[in-house]
Every structure is written in C-alpha cells, then in structure tokens.
Amino acid sequence: MLQRLTIRNYAIIDYLEVDFSQNLNVITGETGAGKSILLGALSLILGDRADPGVLFDKTGKCIIEGFFKVKKAQVLSFFEKHELDLEELLIIRREISASGKSRAFVNDTPVNISQLGELSTYLVDLHQQFDTLALANADFQREVIDALVNKPVVLQEYQQVYSQYAQVQKRYKHLVESRDSANKELDYNRFLLDELTEANFYQNEVEDLDAELQTLSHAEEIKNTLNRIYFQLKEDEQPILQQIKQLQASLNGLANFHKEIPGLAERLLSTYVELQDISGEIEGINDQVFYDAARIEVVNERLTMGYRLFKKHSVQTTNELLEIKEALSTKVADVLNLDDQLLALEQEQTRLQEHLLQTAAIITAHRQEQAMPFAQRVNELLAQVGMPNARLKVDILVGELNPHGQDTIDFLFDANKSNQFAPVGKVASGGELSRIMLCIKSLVAKSVALPTLIFDEIDTGISGEAARQVGIILKDLAKSHQIICITHQPQIAGKADAHYFVFKDAKADKVTTSVRLLSVEERVNKIAQMLSGEKPTAAALENAREMLTSF
C-alpha cells in the first residue's frame, strides 16, 4: 500500500506531503484546485514519461517520492530479476531537472523508466490496466475473465507451448523458403559437384603434377648432368672421391706434428663420406629419370583440367578446389535432406497443435464457466449504482489458436433492456462506462494482486442514490484493498476512512496547491458544502453528519 507521497517543485505544487490510510482515502476539492495534479505526480514514480515543463521553480529540480509498504512475496520476482535489494518499506524516487534529465531510484538504487513501469504493475492500479477506455479493448476483456478464472498455471502452460509452436512455425516457413531458393541452385551445384568428383583430385595433386612435368620435360638434360657428375666423382681417371681419400690419408700422417691437423683430417674424412652419399643418390635419381612421352601427355591433360577448374572457381591450389567440392557436397546434401527436416517440423507442429487445442479447450471451458455469473453480478451492481435497465453480456467465440487460447471475448451492452446488445465501447456513455468499470473492478480486484486501487472521478455522471451505492461499493472494496478516490460526490466522501481536501494557497505572489487531512468537523463542513454550496445550510450540515455516521 502507498503510505506516503511527497511532492516537491511539481506543476503548481511547491511542497506537500500526504500520508494515506490503508483503507478508503477520498480526495476532494474545487475544480482546478490540483486534485489530478496529485495523480500526475504519482504517475511519474510509476513510470510515466517526464516533462521538464512541469517544474514549479525552473531553477530547481522536481522530486517525487512514494513510500510503499509491501509484502516481500508480492514483489520478490521483480527484485530478483533486476538484482535489487528488497525491504518491507519500498521507496521510489523520481527526479526531474530543468534540462529535462530524469532519474529514478528504487531504495536509492538507480533504475530505468522501463523497470519503474514494470514495478508499478505489482503495486498500483492507476487507471492503466482498468480504465474506462480499456473496456472496449479485447485484451482487457480477456484479462478480466481470466482474472476471475484465476488459473494462471493452465494459461502459463498454454503460452509456453504456444511459444514453441510459433517458433516451429517460423522455422518451417524459413526452411520452405530455403528449400525453394536452394532448389533453384540445386541443378547447377550438382553439375559443379559432379565435375569435381569426376576430376577426382587428391590433395596437392596439381602442384605435384606440375613438378613431375618439369622433370619429364628435362629428363635428357637431367640424366646427362647426373652422369657427368657421377663419373667425375667415382669413375674418372682420377676420381674426386679417390683424390679426397688420398688427401685425408696424407693429413692424417701429420697428426702428431701439429695440434690442428687432426681436426682438418677429420673434416676431410667427413667430406669424403658426404660425397660418397651424394654419388649414391645421384645414381639413384639417374636410374629413376627417363623420358616418357605417354606420361607427359597424361600429366598435361590432368594439369589442363586442374588449371581450368582453378580459373572457374577462382582458386590457386588443389586444396582450395577440394574445399569447394566439400562445400558443394554439403549444399547438395542439405537440399536433399530438407524434405526430411520439413516432415519432422510438420510432425512437431501437429504434436504441439494437438496439445494447444486440448489446453485451449480447457481454458475456454473455464472462461465460459465464469462468463455468465460474472455478467449477472455486474448487472446486479449496475442496478445498485442507478442503472437498473442496463445489461452486460459476455460473448465468447471459439476461433483460431492465438497466444492466449482460441477465444474472442466481447463485452456487449444493452442500456435499456432492448435485447439489442452491441460492443460496450460503442454504445455506453462516459458515465455508464465509469460505473460499468467500477462494477467490474470491484469483482476482479480480489483476483488481481494489486494492493492499491486509484479511482480518478469514477463517479462521473452520477449523483444521489447511485452515488451513495458507488460509495458503498468502494467502502466494501476498501476492506481488502487500499483505495484512493478523487470525487465530487458527497455520498462517496462520506464513506471515507480518510478525507483529504485539495486547495489553492497564495504564497509570496505565487499560487500553490496544498492538501490537508480533514478532521471530523472539517469533513462535516466540506461535505455540507458539496451538498448545498459555499455557505451550507443547517439541513445540509445535518445531512453531512448523517452521511459520516451511516456506515
């Protein structure tokens, strides 16, 4: 519940502080005194957008604070979600600077406006969820019936499955589009894949073939050179290997005469061994190299194919070509597998749809079960508030699956027992809408876990006995909820647990709005003024006293 509201430097309010009771709080005052300004300030700490033009003093900043006493379970999910510290006394502060910069705090922790708006849904109904304009809104009408059904678990289960169903539908549509697009390219991709598969290159093959062609094309030159080198190393009249062996032996004979000679002899021996190995490898290579015209033709054909494919696919290596082959293979396989994937998604859609239809049927049955008793009770209350001929009817039509079930819910209204029902938003007057809303709100309030309900002139267009009945309904509602009601009706003001009077006061050549809690005698006088004018008669005063003692 809202325990205290403090407002500084807002509109025509310099500073005021209001402590509210936990039951029925009534706010009265002359037209233009600033009653709605209080609600405007309150709406800022509930997440409304700020306008720097509302500053009373353009040199200072506007500060609005609301002190709420809350049950921790009531707001626990919000505080855990946003990692905020939770205390039993919840302080919400909103600051607006002259430059237009706005800041918001929950228990001194900065929050954004979106978070503030989310938090407000746990605390206060300020003609946002249940206002007269909302009566014509299909979502509102459905929410009213669902609040009376009060089976959130079933609805949550349905919505979770519907979310999965919507995702599967989205994936199915995307896959169909992908298949249609892929089918256009399938033939061409398959042609490219077949061409690469037929070429059947292995890794680095083109590069290896290019090196082989160089060898085959220069086979005679290679063999001549290798033969000459081998001959000079081993078979000449004085082979190089033999000369090195002799030189090494001569050096070795001097090993005892100079300390560096053994090292030189060792190195020369190493050279001899290395040249022996080289001559052996030369002989081996020479035996392997030979001119093969047929092989040259085969290599040239493979190279021509390879370079043509390089150019076609804009690559420079065999391995890049193989990567393209693998990618094409995957693309073709994916297209061929799309039908299987689509079939699986169709089966998943069918399964989820059957689940949804079963759950939606349960939801529909619950709604239909509540619709008629709800309409009957609303009609009883409408008669109580001065609309004895008015009838409300709830029309539930079963249609396509949607995020909230399969129902279209319409509140239909007949003001004069004509049995000609029409959508309530089209045929009900402003005063009728206010009273219909009050009746609906009084019925659903216990199912909607909002501790504070605020009515801004819910009594528009009524007076006399109807106004008294509205007061009775509000008084009854205040047994389980904190009610804050702005009214012009003395019959409603007389039912208040706390009566606040809003008035204008001139200070230092400035007109400001102030609020004070009325004593019992002040209440008698103000209610009498509401009954008969600025100077109430004795009869009006007596009537006012009777109103205050009649509950």
Tell me what the structure shows.
By secondary structure, this protein is α/β, with parallel strands linked by helices. Helix content is 56%, strand content 18%. It has 17 helices and 15 strands. The mean pLDDT is 87.
Radius of gyration: 47 Å
**Sheet with most strands: strand arrangement:** 2-1-4-5-6-7
What is the assigned CATH homologous superfamily of the domain at 1-129 and 482-518?
P-loop containing nucleotide triphosphate hydrolases
- Biggest β-sheet strands, sense, barrel: 6 strands, antiparallel
Known CATH architecture of the domain at 1-129 and 482-518: 3-Layer(aba) Sandwich
Global outline: elongated
CATH topology of the domain at 1-129 and 482-518: Rossmann fold
Q: Provide a count of the helices.
A: 17
**Percent of residues in beta strands:** 15-25%
What is the total tally of β strands?
15
Mean pLDDT: 87
Helix/strand/pairing category: alpha/beta
Distance between the termini: 23 Å
Helix content: 55-70%
- Uncertain parts: none
CATH class annotation of the domain at 1-129 and 482-518: Alpha Beta
Topology (elements, then pairings):
Layout: E1 2-10, E2 13-19, E3 24-29, H1 35-44, E4 62-69, H2 72-81, E5 89-96, E6 102-106, E7 109-111, H3 113-120, E8 124-125, H4 138-149, H5 152-199, H6 205-217, H7 219-235, H8 240-253, H9 261-288, H10 293-313, H11 318-384, E9 391-402, E10 405-414, E11 422-423, H12 424-427, H13 430-444, E12 452-456, H14 464-477, E13 482-486, H15 490-493, E14 498-507, E15 510-517, H16 520-532, H17 538-549
Parallel strand pairs: 3-13, 3-14, 8-12, 12-13
Antiparallel strand pairs: 1-2, 1-4, 4-5, 5-6, 6-7, 9-10, 10-11, 14-15
